[in-house]
Specification:
Blueprint lengths: L5 E8 L17 H20 L3 E4 L3 H14 L3 E3 L16 H8 L9 H15 L5 E5 L1 H11 L15 E7 L2 E6 L10
Parallel strand pairs: 1-4, 2-3, 2-4
Antiparallel strand pairs: 1-5, 5-6
């Protein structure tokens, strides 16, 4: 990266899923989620006309489906990257995931178990390694990792990104900065 370069990184949370996290391990978008992803085209049109973006998506269906309207409008290819998948929950049965996730919301980063600590570190490293303007279609917890890390927040969750919210990070001269967080959920389930 040249000294004057600025790298724009957009983290987009997927649209509303058709099923909850404890009902389906990989749901696609609901009808509302599809409409939310279509609205992203006009929301990001000005930025995308000025910049040549690389696009990355979590391998999960809801993230990939969120990318489709932007892909069709701007013609970019999407690289699937497992590093931006949702938080791992090894050994947790599907029906137990919701309760487990609510507990994770309260956990400090230093208290994370090894699979979640490695997942978080991989996300941070992956963002640090981005060398060109990039849009990432991902998940609530992934975005929280990035926002928390850049804000020096000691808990895993401190931000409640809404579906299809856009969080922007800029790398200026090798220093990553949180420029803006996306819209937050209007109703937060505790």
């Amino acid at each position: 990266m040249a000294e004057n370069d600025e790298i724009n990184i957009y983290l987009i949370r997927h649209g509303e899923a058709g099923k909850s996290w404890d009902e389906d391990p990989d749901p696609g978008l609901s009808n509302k989620g599809e409409k939310q992803s279509i609205k992203l085209v006009s929301k990001l049109s000005d930025d995308f006309k000025k910049l040549n973006f690389k696009a990355i998506s979590s391998p999960l269906l809801r993230a990939q489906e969120t990318a489709i309207p932007l892909k069709e409008e701007f013609g970019f290819d999407i690289k699937i990257d497992k590093n931006f998948a949702e938080i791992p929950s090894p050994g947790i049965e599907l029906y137990q995931r919701s309760a487990w996730l609510k507990e994770i919301f309260k956990v400090r980063v230093a208290e994370l178990e090894q699979p979640q600590q490695e997942w978080r570190n991989t996300i941070i490293q992956s963002i640090q390694n981005i060398q060109e303007d990039t849009i990432i279609f991902s998940h609530f917890m992934v975005i929280n990792c990035a926002v928390g890390w850049l804000s020096n927040f000691d808990k895993l969750v401190g931000f409640y990104p809404d579906n299809c919210s856009v969080t922007k990070i800029v790398n200026r001269k090798g220093k990553l900065q949180l420029v803006q967080t996306g819209n937050e959920l209007s109703t937060i389930v505790q």
